[in-house]
Amino acid sequence: MPGERIVLAFLELMRPALPECAAALYADGVRSLRVVPVFFGSGGHLKDDLPNLAAEIRARYADLAITVEPPIGEQPEVIAAIARAIAR
Description:
Blueprint: H1 18-27, E1 32-35, H2 44-60, E2 65-68, H3 76-87
Parallel strand pairs: 1-2
Helix pairs in contact: 1-2
């Protein structure tokens, strides 16, 4: 969509971390974040770590809306694409 930016952030070990990205985007005037986890399923990072980080970011920036989507590997379009690739 016009005006949207896609930024890669990490939960651990690599940079930039999600809170760093949120801070930079907020400083640039962004007030709505959509987080799409690039995981195949919901493990500990998505059940515990990501919700905790999102809550910390929400607490820090009260006027920043954050939406956390299901992991990319659980989205129907991705599942269908994987099934097609396997069927070849």
